[in-house]
Amino acid sequence: MDLVSRIGHHFTDSAHVKLQALDLLAEPIALAAEQVVQCLLSDGKVLSCGNGGSAGDAQHFASEMLNRFEMERPGLAAMALTTDSSTITSIANDYSFELIFSKQVRALGQPQDLLLAISTSGNSRNVIQAIEAAHEREMGVIALTGKGGGPMGELLRPGDIHLCVPSDSTARIQEVHLLIIHCLCDAIDCLLLGVE
Ligand SMILES: O=C(CO)[C@@H](O)[C@H](O)[C@H](O)[C@H](O)COP(=O)(O)O
Ligand SMILES: [Zn+2]
């Protein structure tokens, strides 16, 4: 296949997975936005985590909360657990890479907070441990996964929200995760600002 055909295939495939995800996930995304707003109105914050491209997604979400998305509004409480290299390297060095997020959740998490846990496979041990720590702290969890959700999906409790992209391709799942994050930011702004 020539390069232009390959690129065409990526675009078509991405659009296709997005439309399939719309049918499955529109309602749970709206529920997740309502859960974030309830958390913020109770003086809670959203802690976000993930590895690789999903670390970027965790930071992308936190920056759009802390700064802004498309509407003018005060900053909202969120924090990516992927950014402090001193904290992350010391936990990984002294204990284990598996604990880089869970130790931060145990230190910062309060029952009114939420964890946004992102993994395309649902297999990442450090994200799984973060969910376990969030449950210990009585926090709710919004999980962004794909590939059927893996062990992460099985770990979720009633009241948690599982947004599982119907694809086995890491790239396609990440593309839908970013779209979900933008839908969440837009819905949160609409709910907070009373926009219909
Ligand atoms: O962005 C990509 C691939 O598109 C990679 O950096 C990818 O995020 C990394 O391999 C992650 O470690 C994968 O972790 P996960 O999504 O399975 O939890
Ligand atoms: Zn990627």
Automatic annotation (TrEMBL):
<comment type="function">
    <text>Catalyzes the isomerization of sedoheptulose 7-phosphate in D-glycero-D-manno-heptose 7-phosphate.</text>
</comment>
<comment type="subunit">
    <text>Homotetramer.</text>
</comment>
<dbReference type="InterPro" id="IPR050099">
    <property type="entry name" value="SIS_GmhA/DiaA_subfam"/>
</dbReference>
<feature type="binding site">
    <location>
        <position position="182"/>
    </location>
    <ligand>
        <name>Zn(2+)</name>
    </ligand>
</feature>
<feature type="binding site">
    <location>
        <position position="174"/>
    </location>
    <ligand>
        <name>substrate</name>
    </ligand>
</feature>
<dbReference type="GO" id="GO:0008968">
    <property type="term" value="F:D-sedoheptulose 7-phosphate isomerase activity"/>
</dbReference>
<dbReference type="InterPro" id="IPR035461">
    <property type="entry name" value="GmhA/DiaA"/>
</dbReference>
<keyword id="KW-0963">Cytoplasm</keyword>
<feature type="binding site">
    <location>
        <begin position="119"/>
        <end position="121"/>
    </location>
    <ligand>
        <name>substrate</name>
    </ligand>
</feature>
<dbReference type="GO" id="GO:0005975">
    <property type="term" value="P:carbohydrate metabolic process"/>
</dbReference>
<protein>
    <recommendedName>
        <fullName>Phosphoheptose isomerase</fullName>
        <ecNumber>5.3.1.28</ecNumber>
    </recommendedName>
</protein>
<feature type="binding site">
    <location>
        <begin position="51"/>
        <end position="53"/>
    </location>
    <ligand>
        <name>substrate</name>
    </ligand>
</feature>
<keyword id="KW-0119">Carbohydrate metabolism</keyword>
<comment type="similarity">
    <text>Belongs to the SIS family. GmhA subfamily.</text>
</comment>
<dbReference type="GO" id="GO:0008270">
    <property type="term" value="F:zinc ion binding"/>
</dbReference>
<dbReference type="Pfam" id="PF13580">
    <property type="entry name" value="SIS_2"/>
</dbReference>
<feature type="binding site">
    <location>
        <position position="64"/>
    </location>
    <ligand>
        <name>Zn(2+)</name>
    </ligand>
</feature>
<keyword id="KW-0479">Metal-binding</keyword>
<feature type="binding site">
    <location>
        <position position="124"/>
    </location>
    <ligand>
        <name>substrate</name>
    </ligand>
</feature>
<keyword id="KW-0862">Zinc</keyword>
<feature type="binding site">
    <location>
        <position position="60"/>
    </location>
    <ligand>
        <name>Zn(2+)</name>
    </ligand>
</feature>
<feature type="binding site">
    <location>
        <position position="174"/>
    </location>
    <ligand>
        <name>Zn(2+)</name>
    </ligand>
</feature>
<feature type="domain" description="SIS">
    <location>
        <begin position="36"/>
        <end position="196"/>
    </location>
</feature>
<comment type="pathway">
    <text>Carbohydrate biosynthesis; D-glycero-D-manno-heptose 7-phosphate biosynthesis; D-glycero-alpha-D-manno-heptose 7-phosphate and D-glycero-beta-D-manno-heptose 7-phosphate from sedoheptulose 7-phosphate: step 1/1.</text>
</comment>
<dbReference type="GO" id="GO:2001061">
    <property type="term" value="P:D-glycero-D-manno-heptose 7-phosphate biosynthetic process"/>
</dbReference>
<dbReference type="InterPro" id="IPR001347">
    <property type="entry name" value="SIS_dom"/>
</dbReference>
<dbReference type="InterPro" id="IPR004515">
    <property type="entry name" value="Phosphoheptose_Isoase"/>
</dbReference>
<dbReference type="GO" id="GO:0097367">
    <property type="term" value="F:carbohydrate derivative binding"/>
</dbReference>
<dbReference type="GO" id="GO:0005737">
    <property type="term" value="C:cytoplasm"/>
</dbReference>
<feature type="binding site">
    <location>
        <position position="64"/>
    </location>
    <ligand>
        <name>substrate</name>
    </ligand>
</feature>
<feature type="binding site">
    <location>
        <begin position="93"/>
        <end position="94"/>
    </location>
    <ligand>
        <name>substrate</name>
    </ligand>
</feature>
<dbReference type="InterPro" id="IPR046348">
    <property type="entry name" value="SIS_dom_sf"/>
</dbReference>
<keyword id="KW-0413">Isomerase</keyword>
